[in-house]
């Protein structure tokens, strides 16, 4: 009996002690819980960079939670954002936790090392803290780079395209602005691959983006080498890529007559001279331009000069073609083919040539008629009275 009584007394004292301990706890802690957290409470940032912390703030019941930054390193700038505005409190009511973000700007001249930012959250009955660690590391040269798969391109005048990679080896996300520097008259565009109008691109820390550069030379560009510089601005230092385009020039040749009429006249037994014009319509010089003709059988055609050693872009050259019809050619229309050919270009034309009878035959006929008339007159005068 005595032992049982002692056990009951001990159980009673334990119950009284437990009730006392529970009574000593704040009612808010029992009724609700305030939680303030972030997925990544410790980050590494470059001098001049920004540390961003997405915040998760929850309570057991919907209520207002005031937010205060109680510790920020001297000279640093920190701000709370939510819903596109600067904020100082959130409300935890709703089906999802409120979205809030803490942004901390690190000065460019800060010394490398570890720093802390402390955020305090307070409700009507509770207080909580979140300690954030920021490690500042000095930026190394070359931490942002812009490289091309093939920085040198070569070809005839037309559209050229380069594929570049923009690498961000820093500790923060960077928004880059793309700029180009090209020779006068060239149209050069640099944009993120797959984007037609974008002039900027966002690259995450440790990530990269593909950049496409298109370059179009001006009309009539001369053959030669043309440098192009592409720059990505916005990081701790600008990144640039040096590109080179070698325009070999396009080859084009035009052959026509001086008056652009494709007909000629020639008389049997004589020759006719036809002025021809050879023009280099391309952007590269033409060399060893030879002229040849294909006249009807028994005809002949000669050119002066027969060969043009070199013809600059846009330059014309006059050539005289001397055409002679066959002595037994019959009056009528004939086709004469003329061709100008260089090493990389050629052109041809068809001349409609009209053959006219020689006037000598007419003169001879008239002379014979005159002799016959004189002979008849003589006969009539001498023998007409008999």
CATH architecture of the largest domain: Sandwich
Average predicted confidence as pLDDT: 83
How much helix is in the residues?
10-25%
Q: In CATH's first tier, which class of the largest domain applies?
A: Mainly Beta
What radius of gyration results from the CA coordinates?
Answer: 48 Å
Structural class: mainly beta
Task: Please outline the helices and strands.
Blueprint: H1 2-24, H2 27-31, E1 35-38, E2 42-45, E3 50-58, E4 64-71, E5 77-82, E6 85-86, E7 89-91, E8 100-105, E9 113-122, E10 127-136, E11 144-148, E12 152-155, E13 160-168, E14 174-181, E15 187-192, E16 200-203, E17 208-216, E18 224-233, E19 239-247, E20 253-257, E21 263-267, E22 271-280, E23 286-294, E24 300-304, E25 307-311, E26 316-324, E27 332-341, E28 346-356, H3 359-383
Parallel strand pairs: 2-10, 12-19, 21-28
Antiparallel strand pairs: 1-3, 3-8, 4-7, 4-9, 5-6, 5-8, 9-10, 11-13, 13-17, 14-16, 14-18, 15-17, 18-19, 20-22, 22-26, 23-25, 23-27, 24-26, 27-28
């Amino acid at each position: 009996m005595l032992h049982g009584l002692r056990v009951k007394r001990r159980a009673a004292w334990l119950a009284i002690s437990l009730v006392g301990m529970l009574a000593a706890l704040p009612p808010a802690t029992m009724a609700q819980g305030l939680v303030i957290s972030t997925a990544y409470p410790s980050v590494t940032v470059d001098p001049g960079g920004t540390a961003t912390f997405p915040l998760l703030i929850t309570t057991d019941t919907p209520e207002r939670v005031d937010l205060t930054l109680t510790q920020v390193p001297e000279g640093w700038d920190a701000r709370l954002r939510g819903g596109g505005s600067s904020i100082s409190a959130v409300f935890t009511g709703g089906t999802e936790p409120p979205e809030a973000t803490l942004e901390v700007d690190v000065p460019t001249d800060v010394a490398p090392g570890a720093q802390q930012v402390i955020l305090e959250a307070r409700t009507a009955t509770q207080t909580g803290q979140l300690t954030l660690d920021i490690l500042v590391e000095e930026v190394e040269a070359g931490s942002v780079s812009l490289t091309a798969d093939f920085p040198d391109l070569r070809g005839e005048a037309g559209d050229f395209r380069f594929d570049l990679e923009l690498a961000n080896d820093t500790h923060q996300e960077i928004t880059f602005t793309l700029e180009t520097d090209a020779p006068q008259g060239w149209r050069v565009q640099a944009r993120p691959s797959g984007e037609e109008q974008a002039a900027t691109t966002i690259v995450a820390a440790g990530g990269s983006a593909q950049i496409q550069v298109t370059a179009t030379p001006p009309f009539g560009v001369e053959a030669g080498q043309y440098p192009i510089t592409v720059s990505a601005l916005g990081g701790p230092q600008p990144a640039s890529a040096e590109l080179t385009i070698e325009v070999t020039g396009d080859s084009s040749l035009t052959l026509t007559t001086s008056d652009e009429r494709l007909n000629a006249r020639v008389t049997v037994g004589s020759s006719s001279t036809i002025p021809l014009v050879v023009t280099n319509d391309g952007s590269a010089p033409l060399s060893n331009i030879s002229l040849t003709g294909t006249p009807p059988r028994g005809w002949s055609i000669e050119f002066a000069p027969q060969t043009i050693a070199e013809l600059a872009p846009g330059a014309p050259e006059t050539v005289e073609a001397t055409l002679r019809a066959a002595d037994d050619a019959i009056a009528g229309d004939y086709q004469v083919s003329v061709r100008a050919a260089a090493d990389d270009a050629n052109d041809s034309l068809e001349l409609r040539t009209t053959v006219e009878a020689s006037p000598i035959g007419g003169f001879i006929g008239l002379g014979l008629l005159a002799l016959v008339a004189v002979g008849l007159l003589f006969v009539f005068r001498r023998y007409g009275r008999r």
